[in-house]
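Quick illustration, no need to memorize.
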Amino acid sequence: MATISKRTDSDGRTRYQVKIRLRGYPQQSATFERLTDAKKWATQTEAAIRERRHFKTVESQKHTFAELIDRYARDVLPTKGSQRKTQAAQLAYWREELGAYTLADVTPALIAEVRDKLARTETPRGTMSPSTVVRYLAALSHAFSVAVKEWGWIEDNPCRKVTKPKEPRGRVRFLSDDERQRLLWACRRSSHPYLYPVVVLALSTGMRSAEITGLTWDRVDLKGGRILLEQTKNGERRVVPLVGHAAELLAQHAKVRRLDTDLVWPGSTKAENSTKIRPADLRHHWLKALEAAEIEDFRFHDLRHSAASYMLMNGASIAELAEILGHKTLQMVKRYSHLSESHTKGIVERMNDAIFNPEVAS
């Protein structure tokens, strides 16, 4: 129930203090210069309390955006695996831009303003791409979602009302037969003994760079012919078939494995402030191999695209490819669909022959 008390300050001004007491809820109070404002606040606040809306709003006014990011970085980011460092940098940017605001003041319009600033940001490769801006928004959106569902700091995720930039169609750059032969030739002749088996493994399995460099021997089953990935980009466990030349190379490599680390591809240096060995850094040797093979516009991640393309051109279905590559939805592998056109065309041709060609049907 709301009560309004009239008070006169020492300077002679009249004020109206509102107190709302409802059983089971803490007392709420506010002071106004006009009686009409006091009555309006009392009516709205009492209704909000009865409908269980008021205290969520109060929470959003009590916490700043910086507090949200700090708590998320402490409690949630450590569970993000390979994406932890990237998302930490993205969230640090949002904190720098919006940290001083209370959560109640972080509106979709304010987020959209920062989104547009991001889109104008210059990077070494030019203006920040729409895809990168989308990733920044995705990191922010998840932080807000946690604040809504688990912490009760806000009622709704403001990112839901922010339009994402339209992303270009996914890049599909894969090695031609001639390029593949030249690249493997250059990798065999590299001064780094890991480069050739690592590239073969990438081409054979479609594994991501981080999945390969962070691979440990306890995840490799040479007898069973498989690799079990516990930490993947989408957070789900994935089994990768290990067969053929890649299996042979890993079996040979296992015979000379280092005993001071469980990493399959260990480097020579230790992580900062740690006794753990870093994974091998092959970037310099990779670039030299590309130069020796005279291959342009090709990144290590494109080996994954190459593996996907080869699988499709050898009869794999989109669904099978999604399972091998570890995509949760088929949408991510739709970019390769044109490569399986000849395969699907053959299916349609055989079906037509069977139902319309009397000789085949008989």
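The chain has a mean pLDDT of 83.
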